[in-house]
Amino acid sequence: MTTNLENLKIKIFADGADIESMIEMYHKSYIKGLTTNPTLMNKAGVKNYRAFALDVLSVIKNKPVSFEVFSDDFDEMILQAKEIASWGSNVNVKIPITNSKGKETTSVIRNLSNSGVIVNVTAVMTVTQVTKVINSINSETSAFISIFAGRIADTGMDPISTMRESLKIMKDVPNAELIWASPRELLNIIQADEIGCHIITASSDILKKLDLIGKDLLQYSLETVKMFKDDAIKSGYSIN
Q: 199: helix, coil or strand?
């Protein structure tokens, strides 16, 4: 098992929508890219999509950044994607695998990929979906496929078999990279690295645990016991 951050082969992308945190992550050498989405932006209080994106891109110029379309109409989705892509050479455009009505976006993906737009196909959860994306992208245009492994795990299913099978499908398509999206714990970074996944996205609550990689477990055990003791003293607890 990987024992330190330097040994990781997988690329770590920071996921979030707080511009100060995004810039902070951008300056860390081990962060190779950044991603966001409308839900994260809404939670962060972003009011103007374009202004937010341009503020981010005014600082982050040499690492990939993913912004997502939000239309349900395919023609409008294509227009939004091309506009977003025009904001910077390092911009990747997130395209959901279906619209909210469940209609597959493969025609949108094909149009954009053929136009040279780097798509990040998001909310993918099945091997069948991965195959359809691979069949839709242009072999000369870079692309990302984001499998929401964390959400697969939320259903009680182990996502690793899906990730492994997807990597097999993608091995002859060097311009496409697989993203382990929505991880739930630091261990997911190690798991994704061990199976050869190209990228993992991680939110700040996971990224702040990176320093724990390889930590001595006996020392960690002692620190935990001391924490319990200190908190009990601070609380003034008494059995009587």
A: strand
